Known about the structure:
It comes from Luteimonas galliterrae. The chain has helices at 2-22, 28-35, 37-55, 57-70, 74-85, 89-101, 105-116, 124-136, 140-153, 160-172, 176-189, 194-205, 209-223, 228-233, 235-248. The chain is an all-alpha fold.
Amino acid sequence: xxxxxxxxxxxxxxxxxxxxxxxxxxxxxxxxxxxxxxxxxxxxxxxxxxxxxxxxxxxxxxxxxxxxxxxxxxxxxxxxxxxxxxxxxxxxxxxxxxxxxxxxxxxxxxxxxxxxxxxxxxxxxxxxxxxxxxxxxxxxxxxxxxxxxxxxxxxxxxxxxxxxxxxxxxxxxxxxxxxxxxxxxxxxxxxxxxxxxxxxxxxxxxxxxxxxxxxxxxxxxxxxxxxxxxxxxxxxxxxxxxxxxxxxxxx
Length: 251
């Protein structure tokens, strides 16, 4: 039991250490986290991580995901009320994200477009959100066009989510060669298993059953080495890989 406890402390400390590096925190946090993995992680969570989760855009998405699991319509209701109170860019973006999450992407499009006509007109994250809304609403060509323009204007901008949206749009438009290139690149660096599951499904739909099965088997082997929290985060995509593997496996 002590060994398992120490392992958990180290995993939590490593998670916060990655966050510290990616978010540009002072390097002394790394010493605190690994010198005192239990109390150090607690201090970091209270001082840095929780405040960021509360106020950042990504944090709002994370909190929103938990809320949707408990009350699927709550975020959409509250976002609609916020826009009725004040139709500013921040409230419109919140509502747009809520519409996409609720499977009503077409209703998100005008709110993203309105946000881009304000002081946020060059915000790449809003453009990625709009591209996702286009894609989910069945407008893959518009999604790809928007992201191509963003790449041209902001070649330094990096967004794994945007890259995944772009790859999905390319696939929806039937460009096999570029689909392969984009998804193979994504699989090489994307933190989650969504690109693996989506690409395996694309390969299966194209009739490339052997490639799809090999990707499923390789991904599932690797997923067994993931820590418990990472498997939980990727539960949907691991499940899709498992179901696809079962359907493709020889009788």
